[in-house]
Each structure stands twice: as structure tokens, then as C-alpha cells.
Amino acid sequence: MPVVLVAIIKVVVPLLVILNLLPLMIWLERKGSAFIQDRPGPNRAQILGVRLGGLVHSLADVLKLLFKEDIIPNHVNKIFYLAAPVITLFVACVTFIVIPFADALPLKNGGFFTFQAADLNAGILYTLAMTSLGVYGIMLAGWSSNNKFALLGGLRSSAQMISYELSMGIAVLTVVMVSGSLSLNDIVLAQGANPLTWNCLRLLPACLVFIVAAFAETNRSPFDLPEGESELVAGYHVEYSSMKFAMFFMAEYINMIVASALIVTLFFGGWQIPFVDTATLRDNADKLVYYSALGFGSFSLLVGLILVTKFKKGYYGDSRDYEVLVLGVPAILVGLLLLVGTLINGHFYFGTEAKQIWAALFQIGLFLAKTLFMCWVFIWVRWTLPRFRYDQLMTLGWKYMLPTSLVTVFAAALVMLLMSQQDQ
Amino acid sequence: MITIHHYLILSALLFCLGLVGLVVRKNLLIMFMCLEVLLNAVNLTLIALARYFRVMDGQVVAFFVMAVAAVEAAIGLGILINVFRTRQSVKTTDLTALQG
Amino acid sequence: MEEFFFYLFASVTVGLVLLMIVQDSPVASAMCLVGAFFGLSGLYVLLSAPFVAVMQILVYAGAIMVLFVFVIMLLNLKEHELVYDRMNLKRVVVLFIGLGLFAFLTKLFLRIPKVEFAAVEASFGTVKEVGRTMFVNYLIPFELIGILLLVGLVGAVLLGRREE
Fold first, then answer.
1. CA nearest neighbour of A235 among A154, A160, A159
2. Do C61 and A132 touch (CB under 8 A)?
3. Gap from C93 CA to chain A (nearest CA, Å)
């Protein structure tokens, strides 16, 4: 019975984390694109005067999509029309189960508490399988809408996805060869703590191929012709309204988050902290907590003071003036609390279990930071590069990426063979 | 208590369903899918017997059967597309060019 | 617990295969078959074959059936053209022959002595074991399958070309 409970918690908690990262992603996309395009971005939606720099817009989006009229056109195939967004969202959410968030904690009675919901023996194959299943949602959406634009968009999108699945799989094969295991936790462990041995440097071509293929798999720019607003009306989700459209929308962002997490796990060391391996981290966890509490407290105090000095009454003429105060004053208070509390308490002294838990928390935090940075790269590329034309896209996938990934596999296998013969 | 009989009888049921479907239906696409059901029933037998005799050979052969099924599906659908291009129909009763 | 999962996956598989055979629309049949493959994958997990289970989803449900659904959508058959499979005397006879085959096979299988599955070591069915058996005992079939895949690839490209 505790096993089932632990499994449920391990599934629900990352799901909640990812679902809560979703409004953050939407905000990041809007503010980030505004920053790249040199404009202010969304700053009008408010709750009782609090604008939070545009974060409230995500909540406004959700409410708008919930209350929109739910239209089901007359000549659609009802079962598949209703099932398609559910399939897409389900498959997107289910992929994160095998991603490890931190190193395994050794338990008292000999087992390990892994920070992934399922430490599958064939973990990375499961991820590839779920990516292949994502094609169904799009194809069914396009076909069941009984609309030529939707069908065309759906077929194009699925053709694009299955073309880039090949290169993605072969790049993953390279990583698996070097790491010696299909389980994602083993792949992260095999990369070691030193950033010079992470797969992004050891297997740079495979990393580039995988990142480009991940862009194509998640239908993000520059590969978003199938849903291009200016080319194909809206592609495969043109006939969808309100909550079903919201599900496609959510599925795209969750796919982006999961793809970033995968790239970080496979190539950028996953939960590994640079130069600090798990044993060192666990030994020095108390000193690390002390200094990071001091550091974070002073940082928060500084940011709060800077924000408070920017308060200019009458700049906007409405409640947007007080936004800096709303953010600045709590920042100052939190910073003061942390600093004073840590200095009064003095150095921490933890027991072994507390040290392990703090070490795991640091690794989870760094993993999330790396994933968010990779998501920012996704957004950055979207608003920087123009869209590919469809034939350019297919040429890239079949004529350039596939031979590149095959050559990478051969080269990696050759190097591994030569290095193992050198050892003998 | 689940024994080998459960899996073997299930696999026999799937095989017979696929066989009946293959003979009864006239739509080439559905006949192809019944062919895949036949192959999967055989796969289930192989893996159940691998577990029963505790050797890995059944799983390896099942993996090979999957690869062969993939190739067969690709070629079969290529042939079907060509048939559709020439005859504009996927109904087997329309493919009567060689009928005596 | 194992019984519950066995009957669940078995009924899902058999039910969806039955649904697949009687549907008119090929897309509906294809999606039923995808569901049946998920049921089969669950059965493989029960039989200590996790690698084959994931490969079943990856290859069958994720690639072969995607190809099927693609072709069905490209052919773009109108719904009213597809209503021509109806029950008649020939089909009832075939149904009975099928039932007879099933009864014969069941009688044959029930002769096996009723013993439970013996326990297997934890590494049974893992990727490492499958790989070891494949590359030690079945190396030549593995290479031949590679050549077969290459032939299939070339053949599919040739067959799909438009003669201009």
C-alpha cells in the first residue's frame, strides 16, 4: 500500500509542477517576445491593481478560454473531434514520468528512492514512443474537422513529425551507446559532474541534431508551418474553440517543457551540478544551505531596494504605479528575514538524512533552472528565426539531418571501439 | 492463478478473430489490419512461451517478427496505393482484371 | 492482482479487435487496433517482457499504425462508399469455421499440465538480456533483418513514386 501511495505522489507532484510552469511559460513567451521586439509586452490585466508584470494575463487567458462558446461544427466526426485534443494533451503530460529530477536517495532498508515516477529499464525508448503517439492527436484533429485546410495542416504536421522522429531517435542512439544504458537516470550518472564530460561537448553533433529535431517535434518555430497563422489559417486546430483549443495550446507548451527537460537530461547533465558530484554535495549540504541562504537573502534585499527606489508616483496615472512597491516591499522583507535569521542561527548542523534531502532539493532546483533556460532558448529561437517553407523543412529533415545523425553514430562507435582497444 | 493456458487460449482467440476478419471483410485496408492482428497473436504466443520456459529466445524472435511486420506493412500499403491509383477502389470485388 | 490486470488487458484487446473487424470506417478500425496494441503491450509487461512492450508501442502503435492512418487519410474515401460488408450465409459459415478452429486449439492447449509460472530472475526481459541473446545466438537473423529493412525501404520508395 505505501508503494502505491509513493507512486501516486511521484506522479502527481511533477505533473502539478509542470502544469504550474505553464502560465510561467506563457508569460515568458509574451514578455520575452516583447523584449526581443523592443516593446513593453502585456501589462494591463490586473487583480485589484496588482499586475505582476503581466503574469495575470495567463489567468485572464484561462478564464477567457473557459467562458468562450464551445462550438462543435455540424459535419465533424464527433468521437475523433472530441478525442484529438485529449490524446495530444495526455501524451504530452505522460512523457515526464521517466525524467529524473535528482539523484536517488539511499533508503534505510537498502532500497533507493528514485526521483522519477518510473525508473523504466527502457526509459528513453518510452519517451520516443510517447512522442510517436503525439502524431495521432494532430492527424485525428485535422481529419475529423471535415475541413480541407485542417486536413492539409494535419497531414503536413504529421509528415514533419515522423520525418524528424528518425533523426531524433538516431541522436538518442548515440547518447545511449556512450552511456551504456537506456535508463535516463543511468544516462545522467554516466555524464559525471564535470561539465567537460557532459554529452553536449562529447557528442556535439548529436546534441545539435537532437535540439533541431526537438524543435520540429514540438511544432515550434522555425518549424511551425503546419500551424502558421498566415499560411494555413490555423492549420489543424482551425475548427476548435474554447476549452478544446486551450488543450492544444497547453499541449504545445507542455511538449516544449518536456522537450527541454529531455534535452537537459540527455545532453546537459540533467540534475548534475557542475563540478560538484552527489557525494560532495551531501557532505557539504549544511555549509551550502547556510551560504546560499545568506546569498539569496542579500540578493532579495538588493532587488527589493532597487525596485522601491524606482517608485515614481504619477508615471502611469493608475494603479500600475504601485506595482514596484507590491514587488519590492515583500522582496525587502523576505531578504531581511533570511539574512537576520541565518546570521542569528549561525552555521547549520544537519543529520545524514537532512543533508541528503537538501542535496536532492539543490539538484531539483538546478534541474528546473536548466530546463527553464532551455525553454527560454526555445522562445528565443521562435522570435528570432523566420519560418521554413514546407519543402525546405522536408529537405532538411531527410537530406541533411538523417545523414548527419547516421555519420555521428558511426563516428561515435568508431571512437568507442578505438578507445576500448587502446585500453587493452 | 494465471497459467500458460490463459495466454495460449487468448492468443488462439486473437488468431481466429484475425483469420475470420481477413476472410470476411472486402475492404483491403481492414484486411491488412487483420493481418497485423494475426502477427500479434503469434507474438503473444512467443512471449508467453518464452516466459514459461524461462528463455529469452521467444522475446528476440518476437522482436524480429515486429520488424518483419513493419516492412510488410510498408510494402503492402505501397501496393495498396498503387492499386487505388489504377482502380480507384480498395474493394477486393472490384479487382477482377484476372477473372476467368 | 495479476489476474485483474490479465483480464483487464485481455478483454480490452479482444473487445477492440472485435470492434475493429465490424467497423465500416477504416479510421475507426485503425484507432481500435491502436487501442488493442496497448492492451497487448500491457500483457507483455505482465509476462516480464518490458523491452518488447515498449517496442510494441514504439513500432506498432507509433509507426505502423501511423502509416496506416496516413494512407487512409490520403486515400480520402467517402463514407457512403464504404458500406458493402454485410452478413450473409457465406460469412456465417466462415464464422463457424473460425469458432471450430478456436475450439480445436483450446482443446489442444488444455492438455498441458496446469502449473504456475516459475519465478524468473530480475534481469529477465531487460534490454541487456535481449541484447545479449540477440547478438550471441541470433546474430545472423539480426543482420538479415537489417538487409530486409533496407530492401523494404527501397521498395516502399519505388512503389510510392508517381510515374511521370
1. A154
2. yes
3. 34
